[in-house]
Amino acid sequence: MEVKGAAHVQWSSIIVPSVQEMVKEKIITTVPSRYVRSDQDKTDVVDDSGRLSTEIPIIDMKRLCSSTAMDSEVEKLDFACKEWGFFQLVNHGIDPDFLDKTKSEIHDFFNLPMEEKKKFWQQPNEIEGFGQAFVVSEEQKLDWADLFFHTVKPVEIRRPHLVPKLPLPFRDTLETYSTEVQSIAKILIAKMAKALEIRPEEMEKLFDDVDSAQSMRMNYYPPCPQPDQVIGVTPHSDSVGLTILMQVNEVEGLQIKKDGKWVPVKPLPNSFIVNIGDVLEIITNGTYRSIEHRGVVNAEKERLSIATFHNPGMYKEVGPAKSLVERQKVAKFRRLTMKEYMDGLFSRTLDGKAYLDALRI
Ligand SMILES: O=C(O)CCC(=O)C(=O)O
Ligand SMILES: [Fe+2]
Questions:
Q1: Assign residue 286 a region: left if phi > 0, alpha if psi is -120 to 50, beta otherwise?
Q2: pLDDT tens, 269-306?
Q3: 204 Cβ partners below 8 Å, 6+ apart?
Q4: 12-56 pLDDT, tens per residue?
Q5: What positions does the domain Fe2OG dioxygenase occupy (predicted)?
Q6: Which residues span the domain enclosing 190?
Q7: Is residue 323 domain-resident?
């Protein structure tokens, strides 16, 4: 276990100021230059009154689970993962009152006094805690956001000053939330394997209960006086297996790239937004797509979200599923361990799908 913990030390992000604090401390009318993103075109959004937004697939978890053979809901899931890489998940079975409680406690957590939050701030050479991710140089432009990132599983590598020290009842709420979301992820991944006729054991071995990995990223996007000048989260694809995202408040801001245009996501009440990450794109030999997405911010309102990431364990080897390659004849990505994959990832800035491309054969 020592070794696993040590593996994390080299993954870090340069420590940057809290945007939430900056906005709280003084009335900002112009955005500091470190946040001005003239490199990001915010006008490239679909302009057909949200037609594409309403086409983002919706998957019904109850129907998915009651299916025995390759039926319509599994087919819908397959289509969503191939064509969109994103879908909304409804009827997921998690108690809406519990989700409301989770949302309100996440909100309270970001609103703790700075004195309290400092205890949970990123430390040099660490990636977990409050801060930002993927900051590798002082010159780099920053996102208009604070985040809190932490490992949920494996439990042995949890940072002792983070989750174990979180205030109650938030700590317990997050624990329950992660368990609930984990079971959803497992079912979805199994259904994907079924749709693609990947041998179930192959997927189970990667995402089993014993040594699969789970982490969480809570995002806080403060209101911004010049929302067009900044970006809440830089365009990226998730460098994980599967992401289950929950919008914590009613403010929209997530956009996904579809046919070269940005499509705003309009979250349904009581739903999760699920997306394929780069690792699943690799495992499915490029059949399921890990789609670029970004977050825009709002002039008046703060926005919050929580992303839960599901990954194979650190020492598992990932590559295109063998049972799939047998049929498709070519492997499109090279094989590597999750640790090699993560080491490569954290030595880069977030740059769309460039890292995945580098792993192509
Ligand atoms: O805030 C959002 O809706 C998206 C966040 C996100 O993409 C991430 O945390 O990976
Ligand atoms: Fe993401």
A1: left
A2: 999 999 999 999 999 999 999 999 999 999 999 999 99
A3: 190
A4: 677 888 999 998 877 788 899 999 998 887 777 876 656 777 789
A5: 212-312
A6: 12-22+43-358
A7: yes
What's the predicted TM-score (pTM) here? 0.93
* Residue 55 placed within a domain: yes
The answer, yes or no, to whether any atom of ligand 1 lies below 6 A from the CB of 216, is: no
Number of structural domains the chain divides into = 1
Q: Is residue 33 part of a domain?
A: no
Nearest of 345, 343, 130, 353 to residue 234 by alpha carbon? 353
Q: Is any ligand 1 atom within 6 A of the Cβ of residue 219?
A: yes
- Please report, for the domain that includes residue 296, its CATH number: 2.60.120.330
Q: Per the structure block, which two tokens stand in for 36?
A: 């001005």
Between CA 180 and CA 198 the distance in angstroms is 25
Best of 216, 293, 310 for a ligand 1 pocket test (most atoms within 8 Å of beta carbon) = 293
To 5 degrees, how large is the angle CA 203–CA 186–CA 56?
105
Regarding beta strands 293-295 and 233-236, do their DSSP bridges make them parallel or antiparallel, or are they unpaired?
antiparallel
pLDDT tens string 166-187: 999 999 999 999 999 999 999 9
